[in-house]
Amino acid sequence: MGFAPWEIVLIAGVAGGATTCAALVAPRRRLVWIGLAGSAAAALLALGIGGVWRLTTRADATVVVGLVGLGASLGGYALCAALLPTLTRPRMVSPALVTAPDDGTAHVILLADAEHDTYRPGDVTRALELYERLEVPMPPYLARPLVYASERSRYRRASGSPARRAVREVAAALATHPQDESPYAVETAFCNGGPSLAEVVAALAARGGRRIIVVAMTVARTRAFDSAIGDAQSLALSRAGIEMIVTDPLWASSGVASAAARRALAVFSGHGRENGVVLVAEGSPWQWDRQYPAATEQSTFFAQRLRAELIERGLPAERIRQAWLDWEQPDVPEAVRHLAALGATRIALVPVDLLVENLASAVDLPQAAEQAAFETAIRIEVVSPLGDDPALISALLRQIARASLNLEGLAGDPDL
Questions:
Q1: Dihedral, CA atoms, 169, 172, 174, 178, nearest 10 degrees?
Q2: Please, what is the end-to-end C-alpha distance for the chain in angstroms?
Q3: Residue 378 main-chain phi, psi, to 5 deg
């Protein structure tokens, strides 16, 4: 009996399983090529099975070779799933710090935790590996390609993430409204993916930047911000004569909380007792909160400040509920059901820890609103994040002004 058809079945089965896994993970622009590869594998599989039938003309042999092909496909899928971390892990970039003569000016970097504009498998790999390090239970390797597919679907529903575009709009607004009437450029850096804070700091140092203000555009100082700032500080900035000051997060900003409250109440025609507000945070696993408790505390404090602003503007305290998009309870539908039981007929969903539009506000929050509206049959409005709202710009400008004063003090210290 010839073994060539059996070998073809094995190879085609492994290739078919691998392409199935790749089709769940790869960006959509590559799906055409993966589809062609899968079609070729299916044709080879059929050729191999047909070859066994021609050699043996036995139905049982054909069934066996079909099962061999199926097993090979499962093995190819499992192999590809196991290799995903290695194949998709983002390449780490460690910039070299090369300094130029001091240009005598302060430079501003707006640091944000914003996802890439388009879907990238490496972002999912990074997140899964981080969760594993924090001992957060993850799905088995065979199911993880579905996590990639889900993230790709989120990007497709939003036609790409608006997050980085929104961050750049905030940076442009900061650059055109300097408090000291002296225009300055505002660079942008991101906690995950390039350009990273370390890369932007190194680029500024190469152009003569010795005094750098990093504006943390966030409600709470999260792990992502700590990691980005730590990577930049690992460049040994002080030895190179570079002073870098990082501003505080905005959890204590009354202006930002007040602007969010105004946006929430603006969706209602009045301040009647039929109105309700759900303060929605993204949420995080408890293992994450255990490692980074300050982030949870700051986010909670800001939510309470926002709640106080709403009460001060006439919304009854019992008509305000807290909810989370993921990991924590209650979720949005449960909070809406609670308000509906109290008689609310119009409810606004207000993002607590989202300052600019991203996938969570563009996809997850509207989906949660649709589910809640379907369950309760009441009107639900999604309040957009502040973005380049004047209140947020003013709060960030105040942070820059305070950091500038600190830089001037450092520059005048003879011990530095």
A1: -160
A2: 83
A3: -120, 165
> Is residue 324 helix, strand or coil?
strand
**What distance in Å separates the CA atoms of residue 148 and residue 127, rounded to the nearest whole number?**
11
User: What does the domain layout of the chain look like in residue ranges?
Assistant: 4-87, 106-250+392-411, 254-382
Residue 393 predicted with pLDDT over 50: yes
For 178, counting Cβ atoms within 10 Å of its Cβ (0-12 exposed, 13-18 middle, 19+ buried), the class is middle
Q: What is d(CA 123, CA 120) in angstroms, rounded to the nearest whole number? A: 6
- Alpha carbon dihedral 96, 100, 106, 107, in 10-degree steps, equals -40
Q: Which residues contact 250 (CB under 8 A, 6 or more apart)?
A: 217, 218, 219, 256, 302, 355, 392, 395, 396, 399
Topology of domain 106-250+392-411, CATH: Rossmann fold (3.40.50)
pLDDT of residue 304 exceeding 60, the answer is: yes
Question: Tokens for 336?
Answer: 């809406």
Architecture of domain 254-382 in this structure: 3-Layer(aba) Sandwich (3.40)
Question: In whole angstroms, what is the distance from residue 359 CA to residue 357 CA?
Answer: 7
- Do the domains at 106-250+392-411 and 254-382 have one common CATH topology? yes
Which pair of structure tokens corresponds to residue 159?
Answer: 């036609």
Nearest to 270 by CA among 337, 345, 321: 345
Q: 3-class DSSP state for residue 92? A: coil
Q: What is the pLDDT of residues 70-110, one digit of tens each?
A: 899 999 999 999 999 999 998 877 888 888 888 888 899 99
CA 207, CA 96: separation in Å to the nearest integer?
13
Q: Which residues lie closer than 8 Å to 241 by C-beta, 6 or more apart?
A: 99, 102, 210
Q: Do 276 and 320 form a contact (C-beta atoms < 8 A)? A: yes
Question: What pLDDT is stored for residue 414 in this prediction?
Answer: 38
